[in-house]
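Q: What would this chain look like folded?
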Amino acid sequence: MKGLLPKALLAAGLLSAALAIPVSAVASPSDPTGVIKVVRPAHAKLNASQSSNWFGYDAGALERGTLFNSISADWTVPTVSQHAGGQAADSSTWIGIGGGCLTAGCTLTDATLIQTGTEQDVDASGHTSYSAWWELVPATGITISNFNVSPGDHIHASIAEVVPDSDVWTITLSDTTKGENFSTTVPYSSTHSTAEWIDETPVTIAPDGVGEASLPNLSQTEFTNAGVNGAPANLVSGEQIQLTDAAGNVIGSPSAPIAGSAFADCAWASSCPTPSTAGPISRASGKATTTHKKKHKRRKRKHHKRKKRHRRPR
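A: My prediction, written as structure tokens:
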């Protein structure tokens, strides 16, 4: 397993790959890569980085002093609806390795990304659709055809390197509510430098061009059982990423982490309350095993139709 390494060695090994993506400016809305698009790195007055396409949590190798060879989480599929009448909007919920910020300050980002998750979309007429997918950036996402995803379904996802340093990965996605399961093993050359748990406005490819989807209304997305390298993720508030619109307003935000392995994402909100169900999800029953009562605060659009490719923050 890729274990703890001195930060100086990690920095030397990852710097050249990280510099391949500009971080200080907003990326072009027609950039189809799907990695994070950083709008504003975290600083003393902002305890979260800001992006034009991601919101959630991102762990970086330089910040943590370790590379990542596995990631996992559970989440509940959010309910999608139009935010603006007559406007199509798309969203995706996923876990991935690569494509994110190497530090909590988000001053360096990564160009590789292997990911899997669910899609929640609404068309211009208000009709909703849900699906499951996986992707090896820069290739387009692949829909998992035997999944019948519905809002409220409990999803378990994992991505793990079969043998350390092999760059051969097993992607697993399960809808525990319906008993549907998917697994595939694929080769993919990764930097192993970031791990993330994200809601996103994905890139869309349409007859009128390529761009980031509009953010729909979404019910609160609750992530639980977040893990990396076979252990709890130990998420901290400094690893948060907020979604902003073209004017710089925060329109998507994660809650504070619960016990380092659970949090919620809130769309069309500048802060997000800690979820009431913070316990681990039983994969047999699809229900949370404990409840929590706690107050907390915390702390692109523009396209229609449809063929997506996902995702990296920007």
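Helices lie at 7-18, 61-64.
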